[in-house]
Amino acid sequence: MEGLINTVNKLQDVFSKTGCDQIDLPQIVVVGSHCSQSCGKSSVLENIVCRDFLPRGTGIVTRRPLVLQLVQTQTAKLPKNANTDDSNSDEDRSSSSEPRDIEGDDPDLRAQFLHLPNRTFTDLNLVRAEIEKETERLAGYNKGISKSPIHLKIFSSKVLNLTLVDLPGLTKIPVGDQPSDIEKQTRDLIFEYISKPNSIILAISPANVDIVNSESLKIAREVDPEGNRTLGVITKIDIMDKGTNALDILTGRIYPLRLGFIGVINRSQEDTIANKPISESLKEEERFFESHSVYRTIKKHCGTANLARTLNQLLMAHIRKKLPDIKTKVSALISQTEQELASYGQDLSASSAHGSNTSRLLKLLTQYANNFTSSVEGTSAEITTVELCGGANLYYIFNHIYGSTLDSLQPTNNLTNKEIRTAIRNSTGPRASLFVPELAFQLLVKPQIKTLEAPSQRCVQLAYEELTKISLNCGSNELRRYPRLHSKILQVVSDLLRECVTPTSSYVESLIAIERAYINTNHPDFIGGTGALNDLQRKIERKHRESMKNRIRDPIGTIKHMNHQAHNEQNEYEDDIDNVDEGFSVKKREQRSHGMLNGETEHVQYTEAHQRQPSSARMVGGHNPALSQTIRSHSPNLSSGKFFQNFFGTTSTNRIGSFTNDIDADSYPAGRMPELPIPNKLSNPTTVHGTGFDGSSDYDNKVASLTTRLGEDLSVEERDDMETTLIRLLITSYFGIVRKTIQDLVPKAIMHLLVGEVCQSMQNRLVEELYKENLIDDLMAEDPSLKAEREQRKAMLEVYREAFVTLNEAA
């Protein structure tokens, strides 16, 4: 099982060469508090190695992570092609000949740095100097720290196989020229290592400081709250106060850890200065624990030898547990890297570059055109599920952005009554108007149709921008290998889009101009004059019916407030007109053609409603002559038809006038007041939609009906209001027809003239512009950065494959 640690060491070396940090390898991370910065942590590591090799000093000495790999040897064998430190192969790191072992009892002792693979150190004093030099090279001279690790491998027959990571000690206050945030830097660096699940934390704390104040245990608990992968080391046990001991700490009674605690004794500062051999120090440590009355009862928790043995066993068990997961991770990385490498394409040799570039260029141009078309049609294999893209965005533009914008347009909101009246008067010239002039309607509706042009052109622009966005995103990874080709393709596509968007915009402009050129008042969906009057009459009839019912119920109140009521009714009818629905629906037209055109009236309904009134309200002829006089006095137009004369400039005689002349409440028996008839809404069943701008008999009947409802002469202001309301109704109806047409035609024009034309012409245009003999070699020049990235991926793939082979051997 010792081979497991060597396997991890090999993986560490392999991954370190390429800077790979995606594999979390099992290792032991050494963490020391600021109280143990100068001696405790470094001394523990040196005791494990049995040699002095770490830098010494005050403040932060360890300023870069030191990955220390200990390899137990049986015989003294140097690596092949390795130069010892007494050779002069490396001028800047050469040294004179020296003993291989300063104590002379370990012929296998040697050291190697990963950054100096061809040099072997046998003098550990030079190892210390190299650590200092390499630290200063990256971390500088101002006691700052660096995250880049130093990899050191020590071969010795006196060590157990271990992998340790020595980290900078926790520091509270910066000293000298240290950066002000040195505490944050050290904490971040320590957390980067101990937060990895495969790391075993070796938390070193001095025995002469209360264990609850240990910084190393505190920081270890933040990432390992259960203490499952933390091993505690208690140093300086020999200098505890007399009468005290660390028994409760070492047995886990005060601060329990699953891996437990081990107590060790380091060399004193005096011994270190005197260069006392570590071997003698370790013998004194062993005698201290064996002779102590308390510690000799817990030998397995005491001594550096037990610490090294425990670390070796923990690391092997940990590696054995994590090895299957590591193997799975490496296998996944191999597959992922192979896919990435395949996406970069093959590296073409110079001999066959030109011939293969010709066919590859044609293939890339065709592939790009196909990708563009599939993105528009929604058949691309790389469609995202996060947001709308391609053809789906075009649909959203047509139906949501453009459609909602047109629906929000109100054709008469920007027209004031004064502007409408002025247009009516200007259209009649010096002559008085006999009816609502059609020319005024056309003068007013054409500018409203013009308001549809701006959102229509905006729709064209949005579609153009979406196609541009598609062109930027439909390139493949292989195409990005050739930045010049990619840039040229985008330029050609951009020119093609601009060429197609211009006629599309012109055609949309022509659609609006066509609608403004001829106002078709004979359109089957147009409300027309008759329809507009019908809507007005419906509102007016309802108001007057309710008013008449109220008068019959309360004749005295009606007579008292007659003048006030007449004035209010005029205002109410105008308010009702404003509430007329914007369009003239098919349902209303069907009702008018099937019901109203057949001569149906509301006479029966009104009669039934009248008969349901109290008898006192119906018997107005015999008991309320004042009310009869009121009806006659407020209905002069019922006989004269002055509404038609005032509004349309002519007269009409019909049954309404003769009938109303006969209405006399005094001539009927008591309680037999006749019901007031409601005329037909449309007297001629053959009336055609869109008529009403002439003085036809249909209008005579319609106006006669309105005359019955108004029951009074119209002033000039009232006539203007009526004309304004009719014009608004006509504009709203016709604008709705044009809006519906434009909303249907503009997306079709964009799809045909812009989208369809671009998709059909793209491949031919790309081949025509770029598939040229003199441009092929230049366009197919690979991106240097991408080429370097491909080489890096190749190196990573080799590393992963080598690691996989190593793991298989260990298994």
From TrEMBL:
Tell me which Gene Ontology terms the entry assigns under biological process.
endocytosis; intracellular distribution of mitochondria; mitochondrial fission; peroxisome fission
Q: One Pfam family this chain carries?
A: Dynamin_N
Q: Does the keyword GTP-binding apply?
A: yes
Would the keyword Thylakoid turn up in this protein's UniProt record? Answer: no
- Compositional bias ranges of the Basic and acidic residues kind: 90-102
List the CDD domains hit by this protein, alphabetically. DLP_1
Domain Dynamin-type G, which positions? 25-324
All copies of domain GED, residue ranges: 724-811
**Which superkingdom heads the taxonomic lineage of this protein's source?**
Eukaryota
Q: Which residues cross the membrane?
A: none
Q: Name one GO molecular function term.
A: microtubule binding
- Quote the EC number: 3.6.5.5
Q: Which GO terms describe its cellular component?
A: membrane; microtubule; mitochondrion; peroxisome
Q: Which UniProt keywords apply?
A: GTP-binding, Hydrolase, Nucleotide-binding
In residue numbers, the region (Disordered) covers 78-107
Protein family membership: Belongs to the TRAFAC class dynamin-like GTPase superfamily. Dynamin/Fzo/YdjA family.
Q: Which PANTHER family match?
A: DYNAMIN, DYNAMIN-RELATED PROTEIN DNM1
- Name under which the protein is recorded: Dynamin- GTPase protein
